Amino acid sequence: MFKNDCCAGPVRHALLLMSAILAAAALFVATPALAAQAAPPKAESTAAAAPQAVAPADTDEQRIQDLVTANHIIADQGVVDGFGHISVRSIKNPSHFFLSKSKAPALITREDIMEFDENSEPVDAHGRKPYLERFIHGEIYRLRPDVQSVVHSHSPAVIPFGVTTVPLRPIMHMAGFLAQTTPVFEIRNVAGDDNGILIENRLLGAALARSLGDSSVVLMRGHGSAVVGPSIKDAVFRAVYTQVNAQIEAEALKLGPPVFLNSMEAAKVDAANRSNVTRDWDLWAERVSTNAAGGAKK
């Protein structure tokens, strides 16, 4: 083509140079795509890959399931024996609450749980006999809208502080929920000397609720105690550690005058414990579940 042409050399050189430039440009454009294909895929972050625990919805059915577990826990922890009971407020109808039929807490199942109205009467008993002292629960719920669960027990370690002049006070960090002096309900002030000790009607239940006031625990002279909480897990935690605190205080008193938590210390440790209340609950729930599974295999 360029034979005998004086311009053939320069033109050929220009064409070769242009071809080289175009080839380099094409390689430049292709390199990122090729690099992306060759690069190993980025690992997903641990946070994204790890499964996230989902808290169960706060429904009446979930509360009932927790109520069954709570009965087994307070029996396993020695807070109750064949007597005593725990309830939980209905989230659907806050003036109602759930409580088992009259039965030993360790043996309670889902079918035993009954719904009670604002007067502590069964919504539908289905032939089941309710606890006589259900008024403890109903009247506390009526007076204390912040309370979501109530435990009534006859803990032997606690009773001495309701029949002596020695007050039950927070002596250990797990019992910061206790008042500086735990109130004591004296049934004689309401029912007179001729009484049956038990909270068997709304009048006595209301008087007990007033004695509780804004405290977490009220002692019942010659009877036991009522413990309340902003959740069923808090109520169980408090019932267990009310008993433990009473045991420790009684032992300390044998050695000399105890040093109790002051109100500031009590408030701070109570807040810390509340943020970790599920730690004990999970441990205790696993324990009763394992015990139940072991019993079923026998």
Defining key terms:
46% helix, 298 residues, 7-stranded mixed sheet, alpha+beta, 10 helices, globular, L-fuculose-1-phosphate Aldolase, disordered N terminus
3D structure, described in words:
- This protein is an alpha+beta fold and 298 residues long.
- It has one domain (60-288): L-fuculose-1-phosphate Aldolase (3-Layer(aba) Sandwich), CATH 3.40.225.10.
- Helix content is 46%, strand content 10%.
- The chain has ten helices and seven strands.
- The protein has helices spanning 8-38, 46-49, 60-76, 135-143, 160-163, 188-191, 202-212, 232-255, 263-275, 277-297; strands spanning 85-89, 97-100, 113-116, 149-153, 184-185, 217-220, 224-229.
- A seven-stranded mixed beta sheet has the order 3-2-1-4-7-6-5, with helices on both faces.
- A hairpin with a 7-residue loop joins β1 (85-89) and β2.
- α3 runs parallel beside α8, α4 (135-143) crosses α7 (202-212) and α8 (232-255) crosses α10 (277-297).
- It starts with 7 loop residues before the first helix and ends with a helix.
- The model is unreliable at 1-8 and 24-48 (pLDDT under 50).
CATH topology: L-fuculose-1-phosphate Aldolase
Strand order of the largest sheet: 3-2-1-4-7-6-5
As a percent range, the share of helical residues equals 40-55%
* Percentage of residues in DSSP E strands: 5-15%
Number of domains: 1
Element layout with pairings:
Elements: H1 8-38, H2 46-49, H3 60-76, E1 85-89, E2 97-100, E3 113-116, H4 135-143, E4 149-153, H5 160-163, E5 184-185, H6 188-191, H7 202-212, E6 217-220, E7 224-229, H8 232-255, H9 263-275, H10 277-297
Parallel strand pairs: 5-6
Antiparallel strand pairs: 1-2, 1-4, 2-3, 4-7, 6-7
